[in-house]
Design goal:
CATH superfamily of the largest domain: Bira Bifunctional Protein, Domain 2
Radius of gyration: 29 Å
Distance between the termini: 22 Å
Number of helices: 14
Number of strands: 31
CATH architecture of the largest domain: 2-Layer Sandwich
CATH topology of the largest domain: BirA Bifunctional Protein, domain 2
Bound molecules: zinc ion
Structural class: alpha+beta
Number of domains: 3
Shape: globular
CATH class of the largest domain: Alpha Beta
Oligomer: single chain
Length: about 575
């Protein structure tokens, strides 16, 4: 491809609206342009990156035995009413009516459509298992679209759905997808972790998220420093402590102290000069059947998802001021476990074995010093209900957990029979009996993955693409296009590389070298081959690695083989 014939509208300045590196760089490199909030056009350079990303995903899905289909983007309401999700999906679903007043939505996901399709074409166990996927548009009306294509409303996603005869088969399909995802992100050249995830409102009973590691990532993941345990913050477990030794620790006398308008952990610990780890945070939640009290250490954070799962409630909501006051007879900030009646108290494992804590006094402007378990109050159960953090023990091996930041680019779920039951997708078993198919679903955000690659790999000069998804593998850059011999050498190298099946961009623009070098760095092409005065005089060209910045001189006649060799090394 010739630069002069290609459209790469690079920007010299940082666009004001871009908050993260990938958004800023995709705009500056001329890959995307915004049409409306969360809705982007992809320009030719961006299109090449997206297409290469999608192609790797496609190849690995095919290798895993999945079959490509295309499902409609516009979906009738009836399907969603059948699955029971039309009324629960909320405002993320963009709904519309056709000329006959029939209701539709723009597909935010495709479980309903695929289940409907499969139940119409599959009737026997002999046709199972099957895994169908598409690489296609989705629309989710995000409340706050931002970060460019990272959190867009309209986006390209690979979504796959597996159908099996039983749980064992579904487990196998899930494993196949897990392995395929690992291969995909390895081939994409990304540093990633597969983390255990909470299944959340999509339902189902098991799931993993694939996180590209990047300091700027929105998600926090917790990973073991020793084994391969990793989970997202909502899910990450902490190894329960051993039972504390019963030695004669001095239990001090309780003391009620005045703490006028001192409410937060910081305020209380500063005022009473105690460490946050000696404070009991008392939190009131309303749940399915009334309310409960949760206790965590002052230096720990409650994890509402873990609490919800621990007590087995669908909904757990931090209580409002009125409920706190009704239960504790004190305003928020002064709640404590001592004297609470007729309420379940769940205490985090982190408090177990500790003594002489500080807690709220259930009275305005009062805290209690030297509060002790069993002597002063009792808890219903201890459990793992706090957020895991740096230094907590791994649930698998007991070694130290670490937190890292990541960007979620893929998610795989075991769905069970949630959709096959509600939409009655059955097959006949060998005995002629109808059974519900067991499903799984598997997504990868294509644009998001490309953006995550940029987020993980860039510098102050621009993008540093992994070779697998770089828009071009090599940029051939004649320094002075008016110099006939320079251009002849550049053209020859360009022709030979192109003939060798390599994606080459020839910067044949009559621009100042500074501009050409700047653009080359910005668009992140892995190798830059510079043909300058030295090519004519000394018969040498420069090959520069975008990633390492390393430049080496090679004789003109060896240029092509040196490029081919370098590309082989980096892939
Ligand atoms: Zn571990």
């Amino acid at each position: 491809m010739r630069y002069s014939k290609f459209l790469i509208p690079t920007l010299r300045e940082d666009p004001a609206e871009a908050e993260v590196a990938s958004h800023r760089l995709m705009l500056r490199a001329g890959m995307i342009r915004k049409l409306a909030a969360g809705i982007y056009s992809t320009l030719p350079l961006g299109e090449r990156v997206i297409k290469k990303t999608a192609q790797i995903v496609r190849e690995e899905m095919n290798r895993a035995g999945a079959l490509e289909v295309t499902l409609p983007f516009v979906q009738p309401a009836e399907l969603w009413q059948e699955s029971g999700r039309w009324n629960v999906y909320g405002k993320e679903m963009l709904r519309l009516k056709d000329r006959n007043d029939r209701e539709f939505c723009l597909g935010p996901t495709h479980e309903e459509v695929i289940t409907n399709l499969v139940k119409g074409v599959i009737s026997s166990y002999k046709q199972l298992p099957v895994n169908l996927y598409q690489i296609h548009t989705k629309f989710r009306d995000e409340i706050r679209p931002r970060f460019g294509v990272m959190r867009a409303r309209e986006f390209i996603m690979k979504d796959a759905y597996s159908f099996d005869t039983d749980e064992e088969g579904a487990e196998k399909s899930y494993r196949h997808m897990y392995d395929a995802y690992c291969r995909i992100f390895e081939r994409l050249g990304l540093k990633f972790r597969a983390v255990e995830a909470d299944t959340g409102p999509i339902g189902g009973n098991f799931s993993h998220e694939f996180m590209v590691l990047a300091d700027t990532g929105e998600d926090v993941i917790v990973a073991c420093s020793n084994c391969d345990y990793a989970a997202n913050m909502e899910k990450a477990e902490i190894k329960p402590p051993d039972d504390p030794e019963k030695n004669n620790i001095d239990l001090k006398k309780t003391e009620r102290v005045e703490t006028p308008n001192i409410k937060t952990v910081d305020e209380v610990t500063a005022f009473l000069r105690v460490s946050p780890s000696k404070l009991i945070k008392t939190l009131v939640f309303s749940c399915d059947d009334g309310h409960i009290v949760a206790l965590v250490r002052g230096d720990h954070e409650i994890n509402e998802v873990k609490l919800r799962n621990f007590i087995g409630c669908d909904n757990v909501l931090l209580a409002d001021e009125d409920l706190v006051e009704e239960l504790t007879h004190a305003p928020r900030g002064f709640a404590g476990p001592v004297g609470l009646k007729d309420v379940k108290i769940i205490a985090d494992f982190g408090l177990k074995g500790g003594t002489n804590f500080v807690s709220g006094g259930n009275e305005k402007d009062i805290h209690i010093m030297n509060v002790n378990f069993d002597r002063d109050f009792s808890v219903t159960r201890f459990g793992d209900i706090r957020c895991a953090g740096d230094g907590d023990p791994c649930p698998r091996c007991g070694q130290v957990l670490e937190t890292k930041r990541g960007i979620e680019v893929g998610h795989i779920f075991k769905l069970g029979t949630k959709y096959s039951r509600s939409m009655n997708a059955t097959y006949l078993d060998p005995g002629g009996e109808p059974n519900h198919m067991v499903m799984g679903c598997y997504g990868i955000g294509i644009g998001r993955t490309a953006a995550a690659a940029i987020e993980q790999s860039h510098d102050e000069n621009g993008i540093i693409f992994p070779e697998s998804i770089a828009p071009f593998s090599v940029l051939v850059l004649p320094v002075d296009t008016t110099e006939k011999i320079q251009m002849e050498i550049a053209e020859k190298i360009y022709r030979e590389l192109t003939a060798g099946g390599i994606d080459v961009l020839l910067d044949d623009r009559d621009e100042r070298p500074g501009i050409k070098f700047k653009d080359a760095d910005m668009i992140g092409v892995p190798l830059r081959l510079t043909v300058g005065r030295n090519a004519v005089k000394g018969n040498n060209v420069d090959i520069k690695s975008r990633k390492t910045g390393e430049i080496r001189q090679v004789p003109v006649e060896d240029a092509v083989s040196a490029v081919v060799e370098s590309l082989g090394e980096s892939s």
